Amino acid sequence: MSLASSRAAFARAKGSIGGGAGSGMRAAMRPHPLYVQRAQGAHVWDLDGDVYVDYVMGWGPLILGHSNPHVSAAVIETMSSMQLVGTGHMGEILAAEAVLDAVPHAERLLWSNTGTEAIQVALRLARAATGRQKILKFIRCYHGWHDSVFASLRDSHAGEAPVAASQGQSRSALLDLVTAEFNDVTRLTEILANARENDIAAVVLDPIMSNAGLVEATPEFLAALRRLCDAHGVVLIFDEVITGFRLARGGAAEYCGVRPDLSVFGKAIAGGFTQSAVAGRADLIDQVAGGVVHAGTFNSNPIAMAAVKATMDVLTDASIYQRLEAAGGGLEEALTPALAGSASPATVNRVGSLLQIVPASGYESTDGRDSEWNRFIGALLDQGIMMTPSGKAFVCVEHSAEDFAKTAMAVEAAASAE
After folding, report:
1. How many domains are contained in the chain?
2. What is the DSSP code string of 25-79?
3. Which residue is catalytic, options 54, 239, 261, 403?
4. Residues 257 and 153 both lie in one domain
């Protein structure tokens, strides 16, 4: 792959876009961001016309692949009649009913646009319902880039007060955050047993720790969470921005067998279009009919609602999840032996159609500071395999055995060249 046009595009972008990319995650791609002109199924074509097996998949939303015909047709049909109307429309009702039909614990929902926005909505609902202020989150878990939860993302932050993850964050926002280690039932019990005294309104949790090495919450930890939240009046929030509708039609609640009070959905909910939602208990959600403010110009816009409804329609087919599981297993089977000959050992963590290559030096060595890891990811791109900078792979129903074989060859070559 020449990457010449992408390199030139990145250089040009830095003259008009801060950091040269619309998101810091894209700017972190190695050796530099890839610029594409077309995407179909499980593949993208760059500005030079070279084709890549895509495991970034829009950073997770595209479980049905690029340009799914059912989703695309629904969006095109809606665009011919309306784009943004600033009023109610039937599309938002139909989409909401489809989501609630899929999620076992959801009685109502609120529409938003991104996962970060929806997390803030969920926290506001929890604070209003409990009259308390503080939020418990877990070390390494990512819940969006907002000041109030963007903290303590490294193992070294365990045992400390919440540590801001970016320069420029509000120090006062972190005063409302309490942190603990993931899967630590003892510490969880200590904090929540005194939830009223500690002013804990909610616990926010990604049950898979999707942005930190794909570590699953243990059944004991989840059971303790549900029991303690019930006993002490704390709202349990599942961050399902990544896992929602990817691991199961009913989200993490179905996958884990534990029902939260609120779930935050994003990414896969609209099959590649911008949309998020907070879904859960009616008494919590219906606070917006009282004193809790929930706003947003683009909330439940017709285009996104058409995409949500179409995506939910496709996901009623149980074979979709069989295909996702098979695809995830196929990639794992291809990657494991390919990594075995690496001079720097690595393992593959997998939960359904989410996979991550984790080097022996640990997940945190994939954060862009390790030159050997950066070289490995860059070498994969040079051989036509696009993964996230952290080595995470999002698999879709369109990935094939041929894609996995090509990936294995590329990984083996990149690993053996270290």
Report:
1. 2
2. HHHT-SSS---EEEEEBTEEEETTS-EEEESSGGGTT-TT-BT-HHHHHHHHHHH
3. 239
4. yes
Which pLDDT value is given to residue 365? 66
Domain end call among 255, 288, 315: 315
* pLDDT score recorded for residue 254: 92
CATH number of the domain enclosing 384: 3.90.1150.10
pLDDT in tens, 216-243: 999 999 999 999 999 999 999 999 999 9
Return the structure tokens found at 75.
């969006």
- 203 shares a domain with 103: yes
Q: What angle do CA 306, 240, 196 make, to 5 degrees?
A: 130
Of the residues 267, 363, 392, 403, only one is catalytic, namely 267
Segments in the chain below pLDDT 50 = none
Q: Which helix (H) or strand (E) holds 352?
A: none
The predicted-structure confidence for 37-70, as pLDDT tens digits, reads as follows 999 999 999 999 999 999 999 999 999 999 999 9
CATH code of the domain covering residue 79: 3.40.640.10
- Shared domain for 306 and 184, answered yes or no, is yes
Same domain, 132 and 54: no
The residue count of the chain comes to 418
The verdict on whether 313 is a catalytic residue reads no
**Catalytic: 403?**
no
Rounded to two decimals, what is the model's pTM?
0.94
Residue 340: the pLDDT is 82
The domain of 294 spans: 69-315
Set 35, 52, 55, 142: catalytic member: 142
Residue 142 falls in the annotated catalytic set = yes
245 and 154 part of one domain: yes
Angstrom distance (rounded) from CA 119 to CA 124: 9
pLDDT at 351: 95
